[in-house]
Design goal:
The complex is a heterodimer. Chain A is mostly helical. Chain A is built from 18 helices and no strands. The chains are: A mainly alpha, B alpha/beta.
């Protein structure tokens, strides 16, 4: 398969992007479909057949719902579609966790797209898409197939229809290029380097000191962000080059001052998907149970986010830890918020700054604590790390610097870059604009490409979220 | 044709990256640090070879170059001992390195001639020479030798060249902050002394595999290991013709030229593999440039092999003895004019 980080992929991308704009408008949707299926077929023709089957099921169900004469028929069709698509995910996730099955590439992502489509059509029959070519290209759209973002159907269909009449958009191409270069830098120069150092600690965590272990745990969060946000930038950049804007997945998550806010800024396309299609319907159903119902909904939602990554105990604990943190945050915010109708007294500036800073650090620490379970392959590994962190078993004397020459310095530099990128994704653009008079954009990108050429580790790691 | 602004920006940024990469290739480096880039890898003997040339005051009268076959099959101390017994004092250095590729063999020879004056060059030759350059060449070769190679379109040229900017940036940084890169800027006698120089005895780990030179392997096991050489496809044959018959021929010419320029004699040593009656490649050409020591008879003796393509201690002792006798003869001849 062509990897999103390989130079060959970008040569191919330049060619296919040229092809798209050379083709007559009416062929462009079909072109995207052929490209996407071709890309997927390079991974597995068998799994491509599975995606086509799921897509045809959703297509048929959508038309069935739009044509149904009774509400009960519409409900039955919707449940059949959602159940069938969810069933596929569940079967493969269970098979993967318990029997070591190979998970079809992007199964969760394209299934979630199709489920959202079925539900949208159920809610609004006008959302139905009857153009089969256009429809099939939606779940298969190759920039989003590996790890999302999970784009909703309507914005996608509108953009592909508009693509037919679209000319080469200079600003969009440049923005796509910028996203790809920054995404590659985040993934290859930061994420993969952090991953190498973390792997050095993972090889024998017991031999490292407690402080180094705590730093490494913080590194789990930073590495995940650099990897996933880097991938997302690349995916969005490729989409832009092909004339399709995807939804954002991150919005400065390290600026979040509590876990609730963090989830509004992290993996946004998944959290908004779950909010729209699970959390809100669930809370509507459970509202008669008051606070207990709400807490139950939060727990179900977070547990599902956990097991969506895989049917393992560690992922379930990851989700449940978030449920606890989320619920406690919600209760605390309710407790400190003024009674209805009353305005909160103005907060002194210094106190606000301290509270915000404390909130950001605490949120990051809580997020990192859940990453112990997310990152560890087995439950006993995670428990072992926790026991060591809390001093229940003796720690070793090694430090991160012992992994290799310059390891500690590399870790600190990568961590700072990740925090900077994670705090200022929108700000990064402003910085680019601000220095443009001194260093024109072509020079900025050129330096970025040069850094990629010279500092990329010998072997690029696979994307963390590609496995989900 | 009007190029859209964004395409212009992209092309300009690619050009900027290219210019910066070209400038990076010009960054100065410390050759000793360059040779340390292979530390901890299969190619570590290269670093030791560099230290033998530049930091070990002992002269080099006989230099051995070749791949793992000559590394495991020829004992420099053994040859020295035999020569001494024959009344000839000569210092022998084995610069062989695992994996095939004549370019790095030429490089070691070139490096040796900078400081020492080897009178005889022992070159391992085979029935199926490698068509490609050595995988370590990009790490240890000077930037100039990577950028300007002796023939166009050598196999690893673009791959090696693509690595050059990254390497030069690292090496330039290593000159300023050697501690942060783990690349020493000074010679460490202890490290030199602790690096294995003779691979024909004892046991050691190479590429994660323990090699026991004292081992005698049953013939049936060796026969099971033997890899039958695949016949080259038409495309491969055409490509070889197109690219000067590959790096082997190009750099063998370089080796011969280098030896001739320094009036050294060349001893080509045929290193057979177990039970394969392959004909030595380019026999006539080799004989025109030096003396050929044909060891095809060894191929039949299972008791001489550690595995199907490498000799064990017994085999290495026999071969080293043969090489010593041939070298003694060459050393006793008047210097080449």
């Amino acid at each position: 398969m062509l990897n999103f980080t390989s130079p060959l992929f970008f040569v191919a991308l330049a060619l296919v992007a040229c092809g798209l704009y050379i083709l007559p408008g009416r062929w462009r949707a079909a072109y995207l479909l052929v490209l996407s299926y071709g890309f997927y077929a390079m991974v597995s023709v068998r799994f491509l057949a599975l995606m086509v089957a799921g897509s045809l099921l959703a297509y048929g169900i959508g038309i069935g719902i739009a044509n149904a004469r009774s509400d009960s028929a519409r409900v039955r069709l919707m449940l059949l579609g959602v159940g069938g698509l969810l069933g596929g995910i569940v079967v493969f996730k269970i098979g993967g966790a318990w029997h070591g099955w190979l998970l079809p590439l992007g199964l969760s992502y394209y299934s979630f797209k199709l489920i959202s489509y079925v539900i949208e059509v159920y809610w609004d029959e006008d959302s139905v898409e009857r153009d089969l070519t256009l429809f099939l290209s939606y779940p298969a759209f190759f920039p989003q197939i590996i790890s999302g973002p999970i784009q909703r159907s309507e914005p996608y269909f509108q953009q592909v229809r508009a693509l037919a009449a679209r000319r080469l958009d200079s600003a969009q191409i440049e923005e796509g290029f910028r996203l790809i270069v920054t995404g590659l830098m985040l993934k290859l120069l930061v994420g993969d380097r952090l991953a190498t150092l973390i792997a050095g600690v993972d090889a024998a965590p017991g031999s490292f000191g407690r402080i180094d272990l705590l730093v490494t745990i913080a590194g789990y969060t930073l590495q995940l962000y650099a990897d996933f946000a880097g991938y997302t930038n690349i995916a969005l950049g490729i989409g832009k080059m092909l004339g399709i804007d995807g939804p954002p997945n991150f919005n400065a998550p390290f600026l979040a001052t509590n876990i609730q806010e963090m989830w509004r800024r992290w993996h946004m396309s998944l959290t908004t998907w779950l909010t729209d299609y699970l959390f809100i319907p669930l809370t509507m159903t459970m509202r008669r149970y008051g606070l207990a119902g709400l807490l139950l909904c939060i727990t179900i939602n977070m547990a599902l986010i956990g097991v969506w990554h895989g049917f393992t105990l560690n992922y379930l604990i990851f989700g449940l830890m978030h449920a606890v943190y989320f619920s406690l945050t919600m209760l605390y915010l309710r407790y400190i918020s003024p009674p209805r109708g009353k305005k909160a007294p103005p907060e002194p500036r210094l106190r606000r700054i301290v509270r915000t800073a404390f909130g950001m650090v605490l949120t990051f620490a809580l997020m990192s604590s859940t990453q112990i379970f997310f990152h560890s392959a087995r439950f006993d590994q995670a428990i072992g790390i926790l026991r060591q962190v809390f001093g229940l078993i003796p720690s070793g004397a090694r430090s991160i610097g012992d992994i290799g020459p310059g390891a500690a310095e590399t870790f600190v530099i990568c961590a700072l870059i990740t925090v900077w990128a994670g705090c200022g994704a929108p700000g990064a653009r402003r910085l680019s604009d601000r220095i443009a008079p001194v260093a024109p954009r072509w020079l900025q990108y050129g330096v970025g490409l040069f850094l990629l050429a010279t500092l990329t580790p010998d072997s690029a790691g696979s994307f963390v979220y590609g496995q989900f | 044709m009007i190029i859209p602004r964004s395409i212009g920006t992209i092309l300009a940024s690619l050009a900027a990256a290219l210019v910066l990469s070209a400038l990076a290739c010009l960054l100065p480096d410390n050759p000793y640090q360059r040779f340390q880039l292979v530390d901890g890898t299969l190619f570590e003997p290269l670093r030791r070879g560099y230290e033998r040339i530049h930091f070990d005051p002992a002269p080099i009268d006989v230099a051995i170059i070749g791949p793992s076959k000559t590394l495991l099959g020829l004992s420099a101390p053994g040859i020295e001992h035999t020569l001494n017994q024959a009344g000839q004092t000569a210092h022998v250095a084995n610069f062989s390195v695992p994996a095939s590729g004549r370019n790095v063999e030429w490089l070691m020879l070139h490096e040796a001639y900078k400081i020492k004056s080897p009178r005889v060059i022992v070159v391992g030759v085979y029935d199926s020479p490698s068509f490609y350059g050595h995988p370590s060449f990009r790490f240890v070769a000077p930037a100039r030798d990577l950028a300007i190679q002796p023939a166009p379109l050598l196999h690893n040229y673009f791959k090696d060249l693509a690595y050059l900017p990254a390497r030069q940036v690292l090496l330039a940084f290593a000159r300023v902050a050697p501690g942060l890169t783990g690349l020493r800027d000074h010679f460490d006698p202890a490290t030199y002394a602790n690096t294995r120089a003779d691979f024909t005895t004892g046991s050691f780990v190479m590429e994660g595999k323990t090699i026991n030179m004292a081992l005698t392997v049953p013939a049936a096991v060796l026969a099971g290991q033997t890899v039958v050489e695949q016949k080259a496809t038409l495309l491969e044959r055409l490509t070889r013709r197109f690219v000067n018959r590959g790096d082997e021929a190009v750099y063998m010419d370089q080796i011969v030229r280098e030896a001739d320029a320094h009036h050294s004699r060349i001893l080509f040593v045929f290193m057979p593999v177990y039970n394969r009656k392959g004909e030595l490649a380019d026999r006539a050409r080799l004989m025109a440039h030096g003396t050929l020591l044909d060891n095809a008879d060894i191929s039949d003796h299972a008791e001489y092999f550690e595995n199907w393509e490498h000799l064990n201690h017994t085999g290495a002792t026999i071969l080293s003895d043969r090489v010593a006798k041939a070298v003694a003869k060459l050393l006793s001849e008047p210097a080449k004019s």
